[in-house]
Amino acid sequence: MEPEKVAAFALKFPESSEDQPFGPDVDVYKVAGKIFVILSPEATPPALSLKCDPVIALELREEFGAVRPGYHLNKSHWNTVLLDDSVPDDEIKKMIIHSYEQVVEGLPKTLRVRLSQADWPHA
Q: CATH code at 56?
């Protein structure tokens, strides 16, 4: 999946926003101020980091060689995915959706309810 497609997909989520708090080479996508995607489009290969349930994180690492423990992140709750074309686009979209859901689950109830009523992208 091309970094531009990752960026466009991440911005389709309700109340998502883009920021560059780590510098111009890293794009961060947030919901309610909480990060759900960290995209490094200039890396070789490009990569993204996504929040993930710890059990699912391990399963994804076993299934895909391009999925690794989160780079400079909590290794239990974050995966870094190399965008080397070895992971199908639909799988990456599912991972992004899961990351968004993981972050939304940790938000205050009023925000969760409001976001649950909005249209979310599908893989």
A: 3.90.1150.30
Q: pLDDT tens, 14-55?
A: 999 999 999 999 999 999 999 999 999 999 999 999 999 999
CA pair distance 4, 31, nearest whole angstrom: 19
Helix axes 3-10, 89-105, angle to 10 degrees: 40
Burial degree of 55 (CB within 10 A; 0-12, 13-18, 19+): exposed
CA distance 19 to 99: 17
Give the pTM.
0.93
CA distance 109 to 19: 25
